[in-house]
Structure formats: C-alpha cells, structure tokens
Design brief:
Layout lengths: L1 E4 L2 E4 L6 E4 H20 L9 E4 L5 E4 L2 H7 L5 H16 L4 H20 L4 H22 L1 E2 L5 H12 L8 H15 L10 E7 L7 E3 L2 E3 L11 E10 L19 H25 L3 E4 L5 H9 L3 E3 L4 H11 L16 E11 L2 E7 L7 E7 L2 H24 L1 E4 L3 H14 L6 H12 L1 H9 L4 H13 L5 E3 L6 E3 H4 L2 E3 H19 L3 E4 L25 H11 L3
C-alpha cells in the first residue's frame, strides 16, 4: 500500500502484508463464515450424522457435537474463527445448541449476501438484524412455559431431547434419569455448579451399565495392605497436610555421641506419629484422606486402629469429599474433633474397569456426586461423555431459569412468522433485514428435515400452515416426517438455549458484515478454514485434516 506524496510514494504497510477491501473483504468473510456453518450443518437433529476428525498425530475423534468438531478442525481464517466463538460461547453458557447457533449464524450471513448485492448498506443490515434479535428474545420469553425444579419427569424429557441424535441415544432413558438425579443432588439454592458432578469414564460394559454414585470416587488405593478393604458407617477425616514428621525449615546438623541418643530421636518421632493417629482415633475416625504423605510408622499405627487411609489426594477430590460428606478439612491433625468428621454409609476399595479405586458412597444429602459412564470402546465412552455434558448443561439452566420451549424447529418457525409481521412495523430498509432474519431462522426446521431425509420444502409448508392455524408448538418429527405437537410428544428445550443461540449468532454475523477492510500481516494461510496450508489443493483423501483441508481448498481462491 502506497500513498503518493508529491513525487515520493509513502509506504504505509509492509511488503508482506495483504489487504482486501470493500466488497471483496465482505465476500471473503461471508464465504468463510458460511463454510464453517456448512461443516457442522449435517450433524443437526435426531438424524444428524457424525464427523470423524483425525489430527496430525493420528488421534481420532468421532462426534456430532458442534463445538467439538469446530475446535478439532484447526480453523485458521479469522472470520471463520468468529463463528467458532459463537459455538464456544454457547457451550460455556448453556452446554447445548452449539450446532444450531453456528447454522443460524451462517444463514444470517447468507441472507445478508443477497441484500448486499441489492446495495443495502451493511450498517443498515446490522441494525435490522439487531432489532429482529431483540424482538425474537422478547417473543421467546413470552412463549416460554414454566417448569418446576422438582418436576423430575419433565426434566428427564429435556435431558433425553438433548441426547437424541448423539452417541448416547440408545440408552437415553437410563442416562437422562441419572443426569437429572445428579443435577438435583448438587443444586444449591436454585444455582447449580456442574463441577460438583464428576464424570468418570470406564471402557467396558454397555452404555446402559452407567450409574450414579451418591458420593465421590477417588482414583487411589488404601496405603497399607493391613488396613480394611471397606468401612461401613464411615466417619471421615480430611487432613490438609501429611501424617509424617516435619522436616526442619533450615539445614540442621545434630551430633549424636551415644546410640541411646539416636534411639531417643527415633522414639520421639514415633511418639509424634502415634499422637497424630491417637487424635484421629479419639475423634472417632475410621477413614482418613490425607493431602500429603503418610509415614510408614503412621501407616502401621493406622492399620492397628483399623483406620482406612488414603494419601496424596488431589485438591479437587478433597473439595468434593468435603461437599459430599460434610467433613471439615483440618491442617493440624492433633486438633481434630468429632465435629470435623464427615459421614458416609460406606467407604470401600473396589475394582472398576480393571482399576482399584476408593468409593465413598451412600451419603445422605450428598452435594457432590459421581457419574460412571460405561461404553464398549474408548471412542464410544468419549462421545457419551460429550452427550452427557450437553445434557447436564441443559438440566442446569432449566433448574436455574425454570422456563422451557418446544423443540423440533417449532420456536424458529413461530419466530419467523411473528418477525415477518413485526417487519411491517419497521420503517426503511431495515424492514428487509428483519425479513431476512426471519427467513434465516427457518434454516433450523429446513435442516432438520434435510438431515432426516424428508423434503425440506414440504416440511416447511406443513409447519407454516400449522403455525398460521395457531399451533405454536407444532414441530417436525424427524423419524416420521410428520408435523406434530412437540409439547405433547415431550420434546422440549430450555429457553436459554434458544435465546443464547440467536443472540450470539446475531452478534457474530453483524460483526462480520461491518468489516470492509482486512489487513493481514503476512499471508492469511491461503484463506484456509482448516487443514494444512494448501491454497487450492486439499491434502490427500483420508489424510489428517482431510475434511478441513478440503474445505480450505474451496476458499483458497477467495484471498
């Protein structure tokens, strides 16, 4: 880039930098955003397909979870990354609806492209989109139905809807029950911290063998073979320190002139350790979890007292044990009292999937629980975990907000209809943007129909006629292709999944549309949306990043 000053050109940008301006920049960014959206579009809905992603080390991920696909694809284009952020925000805030959010974002850009060609200014488009998004939120909140945190049956329907079309679908009845019980257990005054639900993956067995432990599983073993394998009616002490004699802070030299003196030192150390164990026993402890190490002599005394001890427990397990059992961690073990102890019906060392672990279970009012997920292979268990994560997020936000909407594309169809009516009241060219927004939302029911193998036009016409007739809960049954009442069918989604998806999709789309100049320091990696730098040639079929690379090839010409 050079500006003419007199006869001397003034160099402003370095030679390596690239600049794309005006319509070219808008077109490039819109194409990048649409490419990301297309990458996940086929995974949407109950009949959505999966993607296999292979990274440069040969690691394989098989999933239809939108955010996982986009993270694993190694996307390089900056505009495309803005769309990936939509999925990440959706995952963080709600846990589900990542694919929907990205697909809506891509469709908003696609609709905008047509309007830009008709000389509608990008800022006008952005204003219209924002107005439509605001109206959409208000309308969704009016349509939302209240749900009680104690309504286990409805919550299980929500959890099951979230799992439909994912790896866990075959066992969704079992898993949705476990998810709801887990979230209800850790709910605290209307808020839920899902960190208190630990998910343990075990390869082996069927998905149906998954179970919920009302308590904590610690990935450790008892420190000494002479200790009991299990303890019923456990009184649990948490020691935030080691059961060992402390080393002195400074280098100390002790001259021993007599063997009796050495013996005296050793006896004194033993006495200290015995005092620690005696303090635990006196308080009524029969299980102790220790943050640091346990001296061999202390192990001997603990075994004599019949106390089951576990050492070097991780800090997050410590927190979970405290929440689950009600134990108060103590740093000075000799000061421990009976009030500091927690309770559990059973603490035992058990084998699970070939590993020995400590199970702390049968805890009354456990505020920390553990979900054990089973599956035939590691890939299956990983995908079940992703489905469970989404499902936990859905139940969490429903417990917090207490509001749900029908699924199956019903809210989007209803919104599109309402926004077209609202567009009439919007003056100027923004009206066209609001109508485009309404059209963009219909991408959800259209894609649901496409992915299920039904005619998207026929499905959309049926849906619209039902909504015109006043049936706002009418949605698409992906299995039969019929339009049915989603509330009656029990297909429901949290309000926040929809509002968050529309808001973040709108924000990302409007930000991309307002960019009219892309100045890059150096090459934009060939305009890739994924895979290796390759401009117009994707990597060989089946090679790492093949999917991403292939997409990148199509975009290489944009730059």
């Amino acid at each position: 880039m050079a500006q003419q000053m007199g006869n001397q050109p003034l160099i402003v940008l370095s030679e390596d930098s690239q600049r794309t301006s005006g319509e070219d920049a808008q077109s490039m960014n819109i194409t990048a955003g649409k490419a990301v959206s297309e990458a996940v579009r086929t995974t949407l809905g109950p009949k959505g397909m999966d993607k296999m992603l292979v990274d440069s080390t040969g690691e394989v991920v098989v999933t239809n979870d939108g955010v996982t696909i986009l993270k694993e694809m190694d996307i390089e284009h900056p505009a495309a990354n803005m769309i990936v952020e939509v999925a990440e925000t959706q995952e963080t805030e709600v846990g589900d609806g990542t694919t929907s959010a990205v697909v809506v974002s891509g469709e908003l850009l696609s609709e905008a492209e047509d309007l830009l060609e008709q000389d509608i200014h990008a800022t006008t488009l952005a204003q219209g989109y924002r107005q439509a998004a605001e109206q959409a939120r208000t309308f969704l909140e009016e349509k939302a139905v209240d749900i009680s945190p104690d309504d286990t049956e409805e919550l299980e329907k929500l959890a099951a809807t979230s799992m439909t079309g994912k790896g866990a679908e075959n066992a969704k009845d079992v898993l949705s029950g476990l998810v709801v019980r887990a979230v209800q257990s850790v709910a605290d005054d209307g808020s839920v911290d899902t960190d208190n639900i630990k998910v343990e993956k075990v390869t082996g067995g069927a998905i149906e063998n998954s179970e919920l432990i009302e308590g904590v599983i610690v990935d450790k073993e008892r420190v000494n073979e002479n200790m009991p394998f299990g303890v019923e009616d456990a009184n649990i002490a948490l020691v935030d320190d080691g059961l060992e004699v402390k080393e002195t802070e400074i280098d100390t030299e002790v001259n021993v002139t007599d063997p009796d003196q050495l013996q005296q030192f050793l006896d004194q150390e033993e006495e200290q350790l015995k005092e620690m164990v005696d303090a635990l026993a006196a308080a009524g402890t029969n299980v102790v979890f220790v943050d640091g190490g346990i001296d061999d002599m202390a192990q001997h005394y603990l075994a004599e007292e019949g106390i089951l001890a576990v050492r070097r427990v991780k800090s997050d397990d410590f927190t979970r044990l405290s929440r689950a059992t009600g134990a108060t961690p103590v740093s000075n073990v000799t000061d421990i009292e009976a009030d500091d102890l927690g309770e559990a019906g059973s603490v035992a060392q058990k084998d699970i999937g070939g590993d020995e672990r400590i199970f702390v279970e049968d805890v009354e009012e456990a505020k920390s629980v553990t979900l054990i997920l089973r599956g035939g292979t590691a890939h299956v268990v990983d995908e079940v975990e992703r489905a469970i994560d989404d499902s936990l997020g859905v139940v969490r936000v429903t417990l917090e907000d207490g509001k749900v909407l029908p699924g199956g594309g019903a809210p989007e169809t209803e919104l599109a209809m309402q926004l077209r009516q609202f567009a009439d009241s919007v003056g100027g060219r923004e009206q066209l943007a609001v109508e485009a927004f309404a059209d963009a939302l219909e991408v959800i029911p259209r894609t649901l129909a496409e992915n299920a193998g039904h005619d998207p036009i026929d499905s959309l016409v049926d849906l619209r006629s039902q909504h015109d007739a006043g049936n706002s809960a009418a949605g698409l049954d992906a299995y039969t292709g019929e339009v049915i009442d989603m509330d009656a069918e029990g297909v429901v989604e949290p309000l926040r999944v929809k509002t968050q998806a529309i808001e973040s999709a709108t924000e990302a789309a409007t930000m991309i549309l307002r960019i009219d100049d892309v100045i890059a320091a150096g090459d934009l990696a060939g305009g890739q949306v994924g895979g290796d730098e390759g401009g117009d040639e994707g990597p060989p079929a089946g090679g790492p990043g093949g999917m991403g690379g292939g997409m990148g090839g199509g975009m290489g010409g944009m730059m």
